[in-house]
Design the sequence.
């Protein structure tokens, strides 16, 4: 069982990294904590994996649920960041290409979404079907469709306001 889990997990580590980046793009220490928590929850839940869905879909569900709980816990904690944290960062002076500017603008807009909407967008950007998103999130296919339309409009408005 352990070898099978590790094999499946190693084939799908990108799923966990993507979830962590979506929820904590600018906080590497929180990303690391979330990564460890997702691994722990996946290991703990693996005996219940029946194989009804792909392992990656099952792992997304575990990861997203863990991320939402973790994100909510973080939001309840008082901010203890040091005022000088931002002063120690070295700005990127490489002159990013236009494509990466668009990607950065998109990520900034995604960061403002609710935890559940971030999860839906993450799955959508990974080319999951509406049916797979619905199954992973525990909502109906039509709810996925409606939410994605609203999310796209919300992101478009934020990007428009940015420009």
Sequence:
């Amino acid at each position: 069982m352990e070898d099978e889990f590790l094999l499946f997990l190693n084939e799908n580590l990108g799923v966990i990294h993507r979830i962590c980046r979506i929820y904590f793009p600018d906080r590497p220490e929180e990303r690391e904590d979330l990564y460890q928590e997702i691994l722990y929850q996946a290991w703990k839940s693996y005996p219940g994996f029946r194989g009804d869905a792909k392992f990656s879909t099952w792992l997304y569900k575990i990861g997203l649920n863990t991320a939402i709980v973790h994100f909510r816990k973080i939001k309840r904690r008082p901010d203890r960041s040091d005022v000088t944290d931002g002063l120690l960062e070295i700005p990127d002076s490489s002159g990013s290409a236009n494509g990466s500017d668009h990607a950065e603008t998109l990520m900034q807009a995604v960061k403002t979404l609710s935890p559940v909407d971030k999860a839906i967008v993450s799955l959508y950007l990974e080319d999951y079907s509406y049916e797979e998103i619905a199954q992973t999130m525990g909502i109906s296919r039509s709810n996925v469709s409606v939410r994605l339309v609203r999310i796209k409009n919300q992101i478009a408005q934020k990007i428009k306001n940015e420009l």
